[in-house]
Design goal:
about 400 residues; alpha/beta; four-stranded parallel sheet; 16 helices; 13 strands; globular
């Protein structure tokens, strides 16, 4: 890989060859960062070469990805999801220059497809036949779908609380699913032991440094879709910290290669019932594991595995952190749907709830250009979608009763 220099431990600074199964630092257990030869990349890619490309997926950014030149991309089309101007919604929350990045358009309906696409191609490069991970749902779905398309085996560990819509995806895709009667931390630890015992390729984003490289493509797309004019703020919901770290890495790639002139500030949004990353950022202290009390299952990670990169992303981008209640998340689901026609799951709309609060508190100015990343589709968690929207009107097939109901409810 001529574009990749090496992997570097962010804790001790030791560098390692970027081999397929590069995981945590063997010396200090620190997280590995993939570092690139930006001078090489500059000679391969620019605004004009990107504009000429017809590959509308993450593979249009191949020079920024840690894969071999000869490796074919996986079969499912991942990335190049829509970026919608959202003036009505923006006006409603005091941010008229708002854009919605809808990553629910990915193959298994979440941003996690970006990371799984890289995991699958790296597993194939290394000759692995089985890929495994722990997940609250979306990473599992993305891995299972991607493996099914490529003929790889998938072993998935999910906490028992994972929504049935996501578990159904796993089973339909033919994954071997282990439902763990415990927390996400319990689920992760069990998966780690099983992966080590049976020698599967490890898709856990907390230990596999290549997965952030997939997630960062959402930022590469935002940069290009905005004509390489970086927004002032980008908001994203945060669980284990890998997604926000990936967003920062993508903008850093664009900045280091001269495609944008600054890195936007990042807004980390977590649920009040599970906010260890935000608490560490706001207090300046060490990360302390917390309970996992929120309806937003995809960000209900009480013991994050990637807080160091997430905290670095917030500090380096001059970012901010906001916590939101479950009621605020449900309200954001309604606002997003009724003003944009986008159905986001609770974790996906938490970022919008955070933006609304940040704007109300004066943390983000009304003049700011802001992108809100909706990380997952609401059909993954229909139960909470109905909870947010309410029940439909139920009446007998009688026109008079319909007229009476409309009169009372003033629907039309």
């Amino acid at each position: 890989m001529k574009n990749v220099l090496h992997g570097r431990c962010i804790k001790c600074g030791k560098t390692f060859d970027a081999v397929t199964d590069l995981y945590a630092c063997p010396l200090c257990s620190g997280i590995i960062e993939i570092e690139y030869d930006y001078d090489y990349i500059k000679h391969k890619i620019n605004r004009e070469t990107l504009a000429a490309r017809r590959e509308n997926s993450i593979w249009r950014y191949r020079e920024f990805l840690p894969v071999k030149e000869e490796s074919p991309p996986p079969g499912l089309r991942v990335g190049w999801t829509p970026l919608y101007p959202a003036q009505r919604l923006g006006a409603a929350i005091g941010l008229p220059r708002l854009y919605i990045k809808d990553d629910g358009f990915n193959p298994t309906s979440s941003m996690k497809d970006r990371a799984s696409a890289i995991a699958i191609i790296k597993a194939k490069e290394g000759g692995f036949s089985v890929v495994a991970c722990s997940s609250t749902g979306n990473a599992a779905s993305s891995l299972a779908g991607g493996c099914a398309a490529e003929g790889l085996g998938a072993v998935i560990f999910v906490p028992r609380r994972a929504p049935q819509g996501k578990v159904a995806q796993l089973l339909i895709f033919g994954a071997k699913v282990v439902s763990v009667d415990g927390s996400y931390a319990d689920t992760y630890h069990l998966s780690a032991r099983a992966i080590q015992k049976w020698g599967w390729y490890n898709r856990n984003a907390a230990i596999n440094p290549y997965l952030i490289e997939g997630k960062k493509t959402v930022a590469l797309e935002i940069g290009e879709q905005l004509g390489f004019k970086a927004p002032d703020w980008v908001a994203i919901s945060v669980g284990d910290g890998c997604s926000i770290a990936g967003v920062y890495k993508g903008f850093q790639d664009l900045y280091e290669t001269g495609l944008i002139d600054r890195i936007p500030s990042l807004l980390s949004v977590q649920a009040e019932g599970c906010c260890p990353v935000n608490t560490a950022f706001l207090t300046g202290g060490e990360l302390v594991p917390t309970a996992e009390n929120t309806i937003a299952d995809s960000i209900a990670v009480g013991e994050p595995r990637n807080p160091d990169k997430a905290l670095h992303a917030l500090r380096a981008s001059n970012g901010a952190a906001v916590n939101v209640s479950d009621d605020e998340i449900l309200d954001a689901m309604r606002m997003l749907g009724r003003n944009c026609g986008v159905f986001g799951e609770p974790a996906g709309t938490a970022a919008l709830a955070g933006l609304r609060k940040a704007a109300a508190n004066g943390l983000i100015s009304p003049e700011s250009a802001v992108v809100c990343i909706v990380t997952g589709n609401g059909l993954k968690d229909v139960q909470n979608g109905i909870k947010a929207a309410g029940d439909p009107l139920l009446i007998p097939p009688d026109m008079e009763l319909l007229e009476q109901a409309f009169s009372v409810k003033k629907w039309i």
